[in-house]
Amino acid sequence: MDRHTPPPSGAARVEQSFPSDIGKIKVCRRWLPWKSRTRKAASTAWDWVPDWGRSYAADDPVSSTLATIGWIIALPFMIPALLVTPFFLLECLLQWLCFPFALFLRFAGIIPVTIETARRGEILHTERVTGWAKARARRDEFRAWNAAQAAAAKAQLPRQS
Question: Considering the domain boundaries, does residue 17 fall inside one?
């Protein structure tokens, strides 16, 4: 078996190999009913809005003029963010309304639990396992495999004196 491929399971076969910095992989179960589709768009839109670090508003006319000019400059950048934000908030609300039902159905084994392996926020592998206990066992399998790979990688590093 390739040292970058996790052990196979009866639930699903892993088809993606993992990177060499194997010790930094996070393995977890997804709790919310679905992965947010608007989170990235909302955060990207708000990242485009200029941030000058402090407010220019003050008592004198020059500061008020600078604040007005700053708002005029920032407004075109704020429009996309203001348009995306209600959709993001609506999706968050729907996720939290569906959460108790999805959690119950996952505990009952009716819908599968999604296990994600990620490195630095980038999803490397997702796997769906039916049943909460099976998902926990598979997650622990991934974690044990990851720890073994990290230990093997550390053992191969040259010792520094």
Answer: no
